[in-house]
Specification:
Layout lengths: L6 H25 L8 H13 L3 H20 L1 H24 L8 H21 L7 H11 L4 H14 L2 H4 L2 H26 L1 E7 L3 H12 L3 E7 L6 E10 L3 H11 L4 E7 L13
Antiparallel strand pairs: 1-3, 1-4, 2-3
Helix pairs in contact: 1-4, 1-5, 2-3, 3-4, 3-6, 5-9, 6-7, 7-9, 10-11
């Protein structure tokens, strides 16, 4: 399979690498030194590490090698490529950071739980926004999310309960299990915050006498379609044109910039919408 290397592809993988670094840092700097087990295959690999001393990065790579096959078949080749990239890079980062971080950065288990959960969840969420996965239960979550409107964070939450509970067999500590569940909850919330936040859309109504120039620039620079609606001012009685634009939330700033450059006296109405389905947005899932 040939993969065309573009600037967008490079940018996507750089963003993913940053997310993977945050995830690896959260585990190696905070969770593992505090002997707190999170969920996913990383949690399983952590239990293996605590029980046998087998390197975290290697066990993570081996377990995910099997799961990647399912990702390629069900989620597509491009997803599989990004998953392989994520698994390999994360395995390397785990191995490297464990060599450099040999002592706990902080000696507070609760603070380690919070920081580890935030960094781990933020990292996974960033990878999700680029259409990738860190493997393990993330693959299962993305498969379900492809067909059902269920948040990936919630799916992972349910799947990981057993993994964290099994840490009792090693540590004989209810406290560690509780910290593990707190980590899981924080990570799930952070994933949803980043993943769904990147998919949120806004509906923008634009009132301007220079509507044609604004519409032209939005089409060329943002690549979004524009609907022109005939309107009439009640007070002035003048006929006017209203532009209706649907864009993803991160693109809204581009719209604002264009309007400011073309017509600073333009009037706008911006509304968050529950969902936008169709070409250029989300697919309808039943």
């Amino acid at each position: 399979m040939k993969i065309k290397i573009t600037a967008g592809l490079i940018r996507s993988h750089l963003i993913m690498t940053f997310g993977l670094f945050l995830t690896a840092l959260g585990w190696t700097a905070f969770l593992i030194p505090a002997k707190i087990t999170g969920g996913g295959i990383t949690g399983v690999s952590t239990l293996i590490f605590f029980g046998t001393g087998f390197p975290l990065g290697i066990s993570y790579l081996i377990i995910n090698a099997v799961l990647i096959v399912f990702a390629i078949k069900i989620l597509g080749r491009s997803f599989g490529v990004k998953t392989i990239f994520s698994v390999v890079v994360l395995s390397v980062l785990f191995s490297l950071l464990q060599q450099f971080i040999t002592e706990p950065i902080i000696n507070d288990d609760f603070l380690s739980t919070v920081l580890g959960g935030i960094l781990g969840g933020a990292g996974v969420g960033i990878v999700f926004t680029q259409g990738g996965s860190t493997g393990g239960t993330d693959i299962i979550a993305m498969i379900i999310n492809k067909y059902k409107n269920i948040s990936p964070g919630r799916i992972i939450l349910y799947l990981d309960v057993f993994i964290i509970a099994s840490s009792y067999l090693l540590f004989q500590s209810i406290e560690k299990i509780v910290y593990g569940y707190v980590t899981m909850g924080i990570a799930s919330y952070t994933i949803d915050l980043l993943f769904t936040g990147s998919k949120q859309s806004v509906q923008i109504f634009i009132f301007s006498k220079k509507y044609d120039e604004i519409a032209d620039r939005i089409g060329k620079e943002v690549g979004r379609g524009i609907t022109i609606i005939d309107g009439k001012g009640w007070y002035s009685g003048e006929q006017t044109k209203v532009l209706l634009v649907m864009v993803k939330k991160p693109e809204a700033s581009q719209i604002f910039r264009i309007i400011k450059e073309v017509d600073q006296s333009a009037f706008m109405s911006v509304n968050n919408v529950m969902g936008v389905y169709g070409q250029g947005f989300e697919k309808i899932k039943i």
